[in-house]
Design brief:
By secondary structure, this protein is an alpha/beta fold. The chain is 26% helix and 27% strand. The protein has two domains: 159 residues, Rossmann fold; 67 residues, 2-Layer Sandwich (Alpha-Beta Plaits), CATH 3.30.70. The strands form four sheets. It has a six-stranded mixed beta sheet, sandwiched between helices. A four-stranded antiparallel beta sheet has the order 10-11-9-12. Strands 6-7-13 form a three-stranded antiparallel beta sheet, with helices on one face. 42% of the residues are buried. The structure holds ribulose-5-phosphate (5RP). Ribulose-5-phosphate (5RP) binds next to helix 2 and helix 4.
Length: 243
């Protein structure tokens, strides 16, 4: 199988041709939910990157739309395409579109592989709808095989890591502390293997002083679009609001 390399914050990730194709299929279907004039949150990662390419290729016009971005990478690309980015947008966005690292059958997510989880969560939380786009490998029965990213303060980092480990995971500070988010913080990747109750885990981790944000997105997704080589599968978890 042919493979491509993409750079995610200095980490070289080997991605197969099929997963790129599947992401593209999901992105093409996602455009059906978007209209010029909507306010749209843009996530971060290769899937969102492909989505922006698809906007271009399909000649979609978003002249009347306002976009809120979750990272410098996304902002840079969106601005180059002439999209209107307004990071001071207030009120509720019509929709946020993002990728994910894992998606369970209830639409709960692990996010943060690209390190933008805090902004992604804030933007998603301030949106009437969250649509997740992913290739088929991201859909799992139980979250936790992917290491759960947690953004933490540097202050008392080792104390925070110990508290995270006491929850039953193995922790690694990303790139030995060299990886710093756009908020100026390190990320700890927590290997749980299986997270049976994502809601309780999210709350428990959020309660640890020193934790900025955890990459568990529980009950937030309205719909996910799974790209498959033979077409797209739409998973609906909650009613869409006004889309
Ligand atoms: C970034 C994220 C991404 O959405 C997630 O890592 C999926 O990335 P990709 O679209 O490259 O597969 O959470 O913080």
């Amino acid at each position: 199988m042919q493979s491509y390399y993409k750079t995610i914050n200095c980490a070289m990730v080997n991605e197969s041709h099929d997963s790129i194709k599947e992401k593209r299929i999901a992105c093409e279907v996602a455009t059906r939910y978007l209209k010029d004039g909507m306010s749209i949150g843009l996530g971060t990662g290769s899937t969102v990157n492909i989505l922006l390419d698809v906007f271009d290729e399909m000649n979609l016009c978003f002249k009347k739309s306002t976009f809120v971005s979750t990272s410098d990478r996304t902002t840079e690309k969106a601005l180059k395409m002439g999209l209107n980015i307004d990071q001071d947008f207030s009120g509720e966005l019509d929709v946020s579109i993002d990728g994910a690292d894992e998606i369970d059958p209830n639409g709960n997510l692990i996010k943060g592989g690209g390190g933008a989880l805090t902004r992604e969560k804030i933007v998603a939380y301030n949106s009437r709808n969250l649509i997740i786009l992913a290739d088929s490998s991201k859909f799992v029965e139980t979250l936790g095989k992917f290491k759960l990213p947690v953004e933490i303060f540097r202050l008392f980092l080792s104390g925070t890591v110990k508290r995270l480990e006491s929850l039953g995971c193995e922790c690694k500070v990303r790139d030995g502390g060299q990886f710093i988010t756009e908020n100026g913080n390190p990320i700890v990747d927590c290997q749980f293997k299986s997270i049976k109750d994502p809601g309780t885990m999210e709350k428990t981790i959020k309660m640890i002083p020193g934790v900025v944000e955890v990459g568990l997105f529980v009950g937030m997704t309205n719909l996910s679009i799974e790209g498959r080589m033979e077409g797209a599968v739409i998973h609906r978890y909650k009613e869409l609001n006004g889309l």
